[in-house]
Amino acid sequence: MPDLEALKDKIDELALRDWNLSAIKTRFNKLVDEGIPSKTLDPREVIKHKDEILDRVQLKGEEYCYLTRNCAKGSATALFEEFGLGNMEIIRGLNPFPGIAMSGGICGPVSGGLMALSLYFSGPDLTDYQDTRTYLFARKYLRRFEDAFGSLLCSDIQTLLLGKYYDPMAGGENFQAFNKARAREKCPLAPGLGARIAAEIIIESMEKEQSARAD
Fold first, then answer.
1. What are 49-58's pLDDT values in tens digits?
2. For 215, which of 10, 14, 117, 177 is 20 to 30 Å away at the CA?
3. Helix (DSSP H) and strand (DSSP E) numbers for the chain
4. How many CB atoms lie within 10 A of CB 142?
C-alpha cells in the first residue's frame, strides 16, 4: 500500500521547489552532446555509497522529467547516467511512453525503469531465449512501483498526484487544465521514485553477489 502521507509531503515539496532549470539543462545537454559516459562499476564502492546514489538518482529523475516534461525520459536518463547504460538515442525512443502516448496506460517511469534494468541485467546474446533473469528483476520492479503508488497506470497516478486524470491529449482544454494543476512540478515524483526503485534493485543484486563471494 502506498504511504499517502509521505507522497503528499513529497508532492508539496516538488510544487514549491525552486528548480534550477539552467543547470539541469546544461547537464542534460552535455549527455546529448557527449553521450552517456561509460563506467566500470566497482560493486564495493557502489554499495558503500548506496544511500547517496539512491538520493542522487531520485533527484535527477525528478529534474530530467521537469526539463523534458517526460517521465519516461526522466527516469531512464537518471539511471543511464548513474550506471553507464545505453545511449541518448534510447532516451529519444522513449518519447511516446508517458502513459503510453498519454492514453492513461502504463506510467512512463515503469517503461524507463524497465529499460534500464534490461540493459543492466540482460546478457549479450540477443537470441538467448533462456536468459530470463531480467524478467525476475522486472517483476520485482513492477511490484515495488505498484506498492509505492498503488497502480502502474498513468491515469491512476495522475489522480494520486494531481487529484484527477486529465487526459491532456484529448484536447486543448484538457491540456490547459493538466498544466494548471501543476503537472510539470508534481509529476516528477513518479520518475524520481521509479528511478530510485530501479537503482535499489541493481544495488541489491550487487550486495547479493558480494555476500555470495564472501561465503
1. 999 999 999 9
2. 117
3. 13, 0
4. 16
Q: What is the pTM of this model?
A: 0.95
Q: Which grid coordinates belong to 180?
A: 494548471
> Where do we find the cell 516538488?
14
The predicted model gives 66-89 an average pLDDT of 98
Distance of CA 92 to the CA centre of its chain: 15
* Planar angle of CA 153, 158, 164, nearest 5 degrees: 120
Which are the contacts of 19, defined by CB distance < 8 A and separation ≥ 6? 63, 66, 185
What tens digit of pLDDT does each residue of 135-163 get? Answer: 999 999 999 999 999 999 999 999 999 99
AA identity, residue 62: E
Neighbours of 21 (CB within 10 A): 11
Task: Name the residue with cell 549527455.
Answer: 31
CB 174 within 8 A of CB 167: yes
The set of cell numbers assigned to 192 is 524520481
Report pLDDT digits (tens) over 100-136.
999 999 999 999 999 999 999 999 898 999 889 999 9
